[in-house]
Amino acid sequence: MTQVHVVYAHPSPNSFTHEVLDAFLSGLADAGHTATVSDLYAMKFPAGAHR
Question: Torsions phi, psi of 31, nearest 5?
Fold first, then answer.
């Protein structure tokens, strides 16, 4: 079993990108792996680079 951490960033939960995330997580679970997800938009992660 492998632990996978996914960093995800898309503003819409109805996007194709979110569907890909769901399919990926489902495939991992089907293969017996576990996963955690960091949703950068849900975390209100700042999008711009700062100096």
Answer: -85, 0
Could you tell me the two tokens for 38? 């960091």
The angle subtended at Cα 40 by Cα 37 and Cα 44, nearest 5°, is: 135
What pTM, to 2 d.p., does this model score? 0.83
Q: Are 42 and 10 in contact (CB under 8 A)?
A: no
Calpha distance 19→12 (Å, rounded):
11
SS (H, E, C) 1-51: CCEEEEEECCCCCCCHHHHHHHHHHHHHHHCCCEEEEEECCCCCCCCCCCC
Please give the pLDDT value at position 1. Answer: 86
